[in-house]
Amino acid sequence: MGLARLWNHPIRELAQLGLRLAPQLWPPERPQVQGPQAGRTRDPVGPSTDARLAALGNQPPERVLAQLESGGAGLSEVEAERRRRHYGANEIPRQGTASWPMQLLASVRNPLVLLLTALAALSLVSGEAESALIILTIVIFSVILRFSQDFRSSRAVAALRELVHTTATVRRPLLQGERASCDSGSPGLGPSVEMGQQQDVPIRDLVPGDVILLAAGDMVPADVRLLHSKDLYVSQATLTGESLPVEKHVAVGTIASASSNPLELECLCFLGTAVMSGAASAVVVHTGGRTILGSVAEGVQVPKSSKGFDKGVNDVSGLLLRFMLVMAPSVFLINGVLKGNWGEAFFFALSVAVGLTPEMLPMIVTANLARGAIAMSKQKVIVKNINSIQCLGAMEILCTDKTGTLTQDHIVLKFPLDIFGREREDVLEFAYLNSTYQSGLKNLLDVAILEHKDIETKLELHQRYRKIDEIPFDFVRRRMSVVIDEDGHHHELICKGAVEEIAQICDQVRIDGQAVDLDAQLRRQLHQLNHNLNDDGLRVIAVAYKELPPEQTTYAIADERALTLVGLMAFLDPPKDSARQALDALATSGVQVKVLTGDNAVITQKTCKDVGLAVGGILLGDGVDNLDDGTLLEAAARTTIFAKLTPSQKARIIRVLRSHGSIVGFMGDGINDAAALREADVGISVDTGADIAKEAADIILLEKNLMVLQAGILEGRRTFGNIVKYIKMGTSSNFGNMFSMLGASALLPFLPMLPVQILVNNLLYDLSQTGIPFDRVERDYLDKPRQWLVGDIQRFMLWIGPISSLFDYLTFALMWFVFQANTPAQHALFQTGWFVESLMTQVLIVHIIRTPKIPLFESRASWALLGISATVMALAITLPFTPAGPGLGLVPLPAVYFGWLALILAGYCLLTQRVKTWFIQRYGYN
Predict the structure, then answer these.
(1) CA distance 756 to 348
(2) Inter-axis angle of helices 361-377 and 129-157, nearest 10
(3) Which end of the chain, N or C, is less packed with Cβ atoms under 10 Å?
(4) Residue 472, phi then psi, degrees to nearest 5
(5) Mean pLDDT, 10 residues at a time, over the chain (926 residues)?
(6) Which residues are catalytic?
(7) How far, in Å, CA of 926 to CA of 918, rounded?
(8) Looking only at Cα atoms, what is the longest distance across the chain?
């Protein structure tokens, strides 16, 4: 039966089939050989998978077999079983979906959540049950919100993984007295004496040294070195991104004998690729985790390095923690020393610590991210990791593959040309006849030719033509021919293939329907046209023909001579219509685009030119390996196209770009992209991508379109803008309040505000911020990438926070001197007056800080934020007059107080607006 015949499936589905394998790591030890071969090295390995494969690919098959201690007849069942026990199953690592308890634990592992939980526990131990209950309620709500979003996202992107049982055909040596199976001697696959007997074994049971057979439609089950081949074409699209199948054959070094990139060697085939046509025998070199695919998959299992969002949240948490560690002990010592009540001082200091911590920050952040994820889903962007939303908005460099992103991922016939570069339909007609009547699997060029169905009608194909014979393609001739009968009058041999090989067998050329001698000048014209088309990134083949008498019935390679050249066929993977517009939009948004591809540089450069992407420089994969990280960083900064890359080279380029502090995104959908997706600050894949790519990604696009990505970037910046609003408002407002408390503790004979009042004040203020996720973000804010600038947040806090303290001290003076609340008996009036003023100023500052413009006049908040702000301000005024007031230590305020309050609030708003404007002019708005 051999390998499962899957050639009717899309190539990417074949690749995904190869990924539905269980985890396995290749043991580093070498197996000990028993018997006559004891003491010999069974698995001679070097420092890396790429280097080992390249070394083996540059050696003759006989030497490779010797190093693997195998032979043309393969391994015995006993030896295969011994190696299987040592090397384990031929399966690659997978990253499974985390269980819900682990996802819940990940939601709890947040610095602010842990800090608030610790404060709640301390409050509970200290007897402040109400405080602990308030804090824990906020924490639980935040954790549940984050967990539910992450859990839904993981389930939405998890692919259904079915068990797939596929087999490979291996050779086993004949036992004494056995005869070789009748089908063991496949034409072109070596002498049958070496064949032994064939067996079908599960792919997971393959081991290094096994000799396998490949045929059209098979998935390559391991990394292998070809021993014999015939007309072998293999699609490596999921590893390299190249649209067209590549030729594979046994000869050593046909591309570059010294190449360090195994993907460029024609004598190697790789796990996860698909055989499109032809047949071959090969020896297994690497299985499981040591294959190219396996090494990529293992890289995906490594935990992601700290990304921009996580680092930003940790830095903000550290900033708040540092202030809390300074302020809370200071308040404790001042109150304890001056008032002598150390118990009351401790509870007040604990309340100050809670007050300095924006309790709602985890919830506000999660709510913003969750709302952003919902908004992005409407833009065909699915968010796997909600923290990546901010990274998407902060992205400064987007590295992307070419195929399907800048191009349509669909080969089309661009021009049928005569030797002078003029479009000629007769060139297409001859090519159409050749592609129609050739047997076997049609390649992508044939498919592009056969899309021109009108030619079939024009030629009356089925009425006038009949196939006589075929001369198949081979890698020496690099051409193929069909022979057809035309109207029963004569035979036509129509040949198409590589331009150089076709030109060698032509002595005439067809010009305007007439055959003329193909002299030296016309040959130069032909080669110049071919060179120009290649420079334009086009794939070119030539078409030629000759008429033969109808008496001949069989044909051979010897008949491919004295042909008449008809012309050239130029093919292209055309650029996407939306690519230019998307690149312009990304450039306007401050995102620099770089192309990382496994395809060749000429075609990639032409594609970039067609979509309007200016090419600053080109660097090939071999050049990347020759540079250290520092030199590569300098080169990468001025390079636009990185071509002929291996998966590890892509990941290294991403890592080097990030090392300079840039926020780097990577967009890819193939197996070869998984490591780079994992390395990037934000990995972006598509829903049609390989499973391993989707597992490694943070963002999944429902449409492989840069315009969809651009919409996601803007939504990410909008989300981050609202998060920063809260952080700036929360830190500056809380810092101002605590600065006021520090002074009040030293000046007043009583507490300026009760611990429970601090918590309720802080809770109501945080409640007023719940409308922020629904707020608008200024258009100017969306025009460039935005990152966490903790220094800017700290600077903002230090400048804006003391303004509220200034007006707090004015309120202290008002309550002390005007309303005579200057004795312990009048402390409730003093505390109520400051409670109301403090809450009102904190709510109003939302509308001042949320925009660089003049609030209400030049920029108005969303109705949700306006509504919740008005509600909290009304609650602040009325709460002392309600039955709940006495329970909180609040008393009714005299009516004249509210006149003074209006003046204080007006002065506060005007001064804050003025300082904010000065701050933006000096430090910018981030």
Answers:
(1) 9
(2) 20
(3) N
(4) -65, 165
(5) 33 32 29 33 46 83 91 90 90 63 72 72 74 75 68 50 60 65 43 62 92 85 90 77 76 54 86 81 90 70 54 72 78 80 75 66 73 82 81 91 81 92 94 89 84 91 91 79 91 94 95 93 94 86 94 89 96 86 91 89 86 91 90 93 86 92 87 81 82 78 83 88 84 78 80 80 81 87 83 88 92 94 90 94 89 89 92 95 92 96 95 94 84
(6) 401
(7) 14
(8) 125
